[in-house]
Design brief:
Helix content is 22%, strand content 34%. It is of the alpha+beta class. It has one domain (2-155). The longest helix has 8 residues, at 48-55. The chain is globular.
Length: 157
């Protein structure tokens, strides 16, 4: 496996976009930590993989995906669900959207009595999600805790 910096075909950032190659399988995955778009080499036009991705995507994700003519693949905004760290996701309309980071919070004693929370101690705090701009995906990753203080400056231009 090899990780290579590339220029993002969506936001044109050349510092925060990476291709991970698995040569034996002739497979590549891509993620840009600036704009948050991701793809892989199976997301080709009319492929089963891209149809499956579209079927499991929100309407917003389908509306703002784009085609990379150089690699001949589709890119989608990332939904990053990291369990106890929380979730980063796009929200809005095609002309006015942003990323949100929802952290995990402990249920209150009153919430614990609610049948919809039966058996749970924590919940994804969607109501208090923090908002990030379309080119602040790395900041959401930092707040989530998956990019550390030691490395954050490597991602900032």
């Amino acid at each position: 496996m090899a990780e290579i910096k590339i220029t993002c075909p969506h936001c044109l950032n050349d510092n925060n976009c990476f291709e991970e190659k698995i040569d034996l399988e002739k497979f590549s995955s891509y993620i840009c930590f600036n704009c948050g778009f991701m793809s892989n080499s199976t997301y080709t036009r009319d492929s089963d993989a891209v149809k499956k991705m579209e079927d499991s995507s929100t309407e917003l994700m389908r509306d703002i995906k784009f085609f990379d003519y150089e690699r001949e693949i589709f890119w989608f905004p990332t939904i990053l669900n990291m369990g106890k760290f929380g979730m980063i996701y796009p929200e809005g309309t095609p002309t006015n959207w942003n990323y949100k980071f929802a952290s995990i919070r402990k249920l209150t004693q009153l919430e614990k009595k609610d049948p919809k929370y039966k058996g749970y101690e924590e919940v994804l705090d969607i109501e208090n999600a923090k908002i990030y701009g379309q080119h602040e995906f790395v900041d959401a990753c930092y707040d989530m805790g998956i990019i550390t203080d030691e490395h954050i400056d490597d991602y900032r231009d």
